[in-house]
Amino acid sequence: MRSIYIAMEERRNSAMFLQKEPAIQEERKTLPKLSSGLRNAAGAKLRKRRAGGVLRPLFFTALFTSVMAFSAFAGQKTKVACIGDSLTRGYLLTDAQSYPAQLQTLLGDPYEVRNFGHTSSYVIDDGPIEYRNTEDYSAAIQYDADILIFMFGSNDVGAYNFTPLYFENQYRELIDSFRKTKKNPKIYLIIAPDSRDLHFGLIQQTVQPVMSLGQQLSATVINPYYLFFGHSEDYLSDGLHLTEGAYGKLAKLVYQAMTGTATYVAAPAETLSEAAQAENNRLFQEATQYQAAERAAKAEALQKLREQYPNYETTGLWISHGVHI
Q1: Which of these, 92, 91, 76, 66, lies nearest to 5 by C-alpha position?
Q2: Which one of 33, 48, 58, 211 is least enclosed by Cβ atoms within 10 Å?
Q3: The predicted structure's pLDDT at residue 318
Q4: 3-state SS track over the chain
Q5: For residue 187, what are the β-bridge partners?
Q6: Average pLDDT, the chain
Q7: Topology of the domain comprising 78-324
Q8: 78 DSSP β-pair partners
Q9: pLDDT tens-digit profile of 207-241?
Q10: pLDDT score, position 6
Q11: Lowest-pLDDT range, 35-49, 123-137, 178-192, 237-251?
Q12: Residue 93: per-residue pLDDT
């Protein structure tokens, strides 16, 4: 298209030159009658006029085309997809308050950060809302990002049939579905923050699976555990979802991971106040009792599941002829 445009411009400029040629020839006749100095000045004026009629437009046409091509290339942004559950979406917050939006601010114009979090979604295929069955998943696949940032687990650990192996295998399937493109995207895995409710401490069961996936996929693992440990002010009233300020802390940690070279990035531990430590101990005791009672109540259902799907931890529950549905 560019070559056609330049050819048309050359033809137009050539026509302009032919129209001016009689006037130029008439002006040429006066040159022998002039002195050497005036002849040179007149010749320079004539050359300048020719340049203005033919050469200069061609020069600026080529320059404009080159600048536009460079601008188009320079305008390409690195696409970042943030994928997860409500902790990625930003539960009860505006889009601008979520961690993906705050990460966009930190990364600046060279990057385009999109939020593909889906509230209440699970990695495991027995969850009420499996992420791979959501519109956000389809949109994230279509986005074809250069960088993928995953954060799951806060819903999965509450499932009655959760096991670390089941979670790891299902998580791997999800991530692999994004790696089928030719881009070979860079992958970051965030270990979900622990909750401060009756599931306190459960998220630690996802740490080893995520670390294992990081090693398998050459991904960078980000552990924000100590960002929020002992900081009840970083949580909404439900004790699970984060505040805008907490998302700012998370976005900064992710930014540091993206601009560094480490394969494991963790928030540093800090010394807790006596009050914070006492609160953590209280939460832990209550959560331990609650979780023990919950396991006992679900034991019969879990036994039936294992009898019906003895290999569910490695194959998942919804398999048809070896194809995930």
Answers
A1: 66
A2: 33
A3: 79
A4: CHHHHHHHHHHHHHHHHHHHHHHHHHHHHCHHHCCHHHHHHHHHHHHHHHHHHHHHHHHHHHHHHHHHHHHHHHCCCEEEEEEECHHHHCCCCCHHHCHHHHHHHHHCCCEEEEEEECCCCECCCCCCCEHHHCHHHHHHHHHCCCEEEEECCCCHHHCCCCCHHHHHHHHHHHHHHHCCCCCCCEEEEECCCCCCCCCCCHHHHHHHHHHHHHHHHCCEEEECHHHHCCCHHHECCCCCCECHHHHHHHHHHHHHHHCCCCCEEECCCCCCCHHHHHHHHHHHHHHHHHHHHHHHHHHHHHHHHHHHCCCHHHHCCCEECCEEC
A5: 148
A6: 83
A7: Rossmann fold (3.40.50)
A8: 111
A9: 999 999 999 999 999 999 999 998 999 999 999 99
A10: 41
A11: 35-49
A12: 96
Percent of the chain residues past pLDDT 70, beyond the cut: 75
For the CA atoms of 27, 33, 36, 42, the dihedral, rounded to the nearest 10 degrees, stands at -20
Model pTM score: 0.77
Lowest mean pLDDT among 61-75, 124-138, 163-177, 235-249: 61-75
Q: Within a 10 A sphere around the Cβ of 144, how many other Cβ atoms?
A: 13
C-alpha 140/C-alpha 40 separation (Å) is 68
Tell me the domain boundaries of the chain: 2-74, 78-324
d(CA 276, CA 200): 14
Task: Identify whether the C-beta of residue 83 lies closer than 8 Å to the C-beta of residue 116.
Answer: yes
